[in-house]
Amino acid sequence: xxxxxxxxxxxxxxxxxxxxxxxxxxxxxxxxxxxxxxxxxxxxxxxxxxxxxxxxxxxxxxxxxxxxxxxxxxxxxxxxxxxxxxxxxxxxxxxxxxxxxxxxxxxxxxxxxxxxxxxxxxxxxxxxxxxxxxxxxxxxxxxxxxxxxxxxxxxxxxxxxxxxxxxxxxxxxxxxxxxxxxxxxxxxxxxxxxxxxxxxxxxxxxxxxxxxxxxxxxxxxxxxxxxxxxxxxxxxxxxxxxxxxxxxxxxxxxxxxxxxxxxxxxxxxxxxxxxxxxxxxxxxxxxxxxxxxxxxxxxxxxxxxxxxxxxxxxxxxxxxxxxxxxxxxxxxxxxxxxxxxxxxxxxxxxxxxxxxxxxxxxxxxxxxxxxxxxxxxxxxxxxxxxxxxxxxxxxxxxxxxxxxxxxxxxxxxxxxxxxxxxxxxxxxxxxxxxxxxxxxxxxxxxxxxxxxxxxxxxxxxxxxxxxxxxxxxxxxxxxxxxxxxxxxxxxxxxxxxxxxxxxxxxxxxxxxxxxxxxxxxxxxxxxxxxxxxxxxxxxxxxxxxxxxxxxxxxxxxxxxxxxxxxxxxx
Length: 570
Description:
alpha+beta, Nucleotidyltransferase, domain 5, Taq DNA Polymerase, Chain T, domain 4, six-stranded mixed β-sheet, four-stranded antiparallel β-sheet, 23 helices, globular, disordered N terminus
C-alpha cells in the first residue's frame, strides 16, 4: 500500500500542515526496485536509522550524511523485516504518526523508538517542540536534521537524569497511544440529537427569563449590550474599570462577584454554560465521526502540557464536562462498539492527595489514608475542631476545597472566593489546616525553597518543571511560579503513574490476546471497551497494574465500574 493510501486510511493525523525542513546535503533519490533492494540491504547493516513519512515522500537516513528519498507511492511492505527488528532504533520527530500510518497498512513497528520531539519535551517542557523551532535552535542543516537532534538530545537526557522517563515511559507509551487513537470511541448520534433538542428548548427558556428581567430583548452574546443591560438599565453596581474599548467587563469572574445582586446574573451564566456545551460537544461530536468506521478518533498529545499530563484534541475528549447535570448527560452518548462489549472505567481515588501525603511524609494525613477514613471529613473535624461524627456536609465541602486547594497553592483570598466566606475566616481555616498537617506545610516550604535555589522542581521519577520566574520581583508572577512549585511534582507524579499503568495494562492485554480495547485516558481515569466474556480477567489486570504502577508509602485505591454508557461506568 502506498503512503498516500495509508494517510487516507488514517485521516489527517493532527489537522496541521506538514512542515518540510530542508537539509543542505543532497539526498539520494530512490526510484526503482533495484535501488529499493539496495537500500534495504544498507538498512539491515545499521543499528539505527531515521524514518519519516509525509504526503510527498518517504525519507530514510542511515547516518548523518546520507539521506534516501522515495516517492510517496512506494509500497513499504518490502521494509517489513527492517521495521520488525527489535534491536534497531527508529528515529523521527512526532514518531507516533509513523507508527499509526504503518499500523493502518498492516506493518507493526517493533523497533526501539526515539522521538526527538518528546526528548526535547522532557528537556524543556514549556518550550516549542516543533521541528522548525528545533531546527532553528539546535541544527545547522549540514547533516540530516533529525540525526543532529538525536545526538544532541541523547546527551542532554543523560545529563539531566531523564533517561528512565524517556526510555521506560514516554517511548513505550507512543505505541499505546497510537493503538488507542486507532481503536476509537463510539457515540450515540441519535442520543446526542435528542440532547441537542432538549438543550435548545432549555436555552430558549433561559433566554426568555433573561429578557423578562431585562424588560427588553438583546443579544446576550454581545458583551457591549450585556454590559449596558446590567450596569445601566438594571443599575447593578458596575466594575471600577472598563475594558480598553470602553465597554463594561462581563467575563465570568466579574459576573461571579455580582451573582447575588440580581437573578439575571445566574441566568446569564447558565445561558453561557449551556450554549457552549451545545455548540462545543453536543452538536460538534457527530460531525467528527469517521466515515470509515463510524467511530471518533481523538489525538493524544505527549508533548503539550508542562506537567507531564496527556492532552487530547480533534476532539478534546478529556474535557467532557462532569460538574453539571447537563454536562454529565453528554457522557451518556459514549457507548460500547457493539452488543458484545460494555464500557469499563477505572480511576485512581484521590490520587493527588495520596501523592502529597507520600511526598510530604505528613503523619496525620498518612494515618487517615491507612485507616481508610473519609479524608475530607477527617480534615473537617481537625480544621473545625469537632468530632468526626459531628462534621456537617458544609464542613466537609469546605475541607475538600482546602485539601485540593492546598495542592494548587491556594491563598486565603482564593479560598474566600471559592467558599464565599470572609478572608478572615478563610485565613483561620488555612491556619488551622497547617497546624494539623505540619508535614504538608514543610513540604510546601521545601518545594518553594528548592525551586528558588535550582530553578526547577521534580516529580518522583525526575520529570522536571522549570520555574524561571520563581525569584521574580513581580509578586503576581512569583506567586504563580510558587504555586507551580507546589503542584507540579504532585500532578506530574500522578501523570507518570497512570502512564506506567497504561503501558503495563496494554502489554498484558496484548500478551493474552484480549479482544477488549483501551480507548480513553482522562488524567486519573482509563476507559475500556470491554469484551463482555473478558470482563473478569480484564478487571483483574487493570486493578493489579494500576495499583503497582508507582508504589506509595500509603495505600492506593482504584475504582472500577461498568455501564452501557460512559456516565454509567464513571
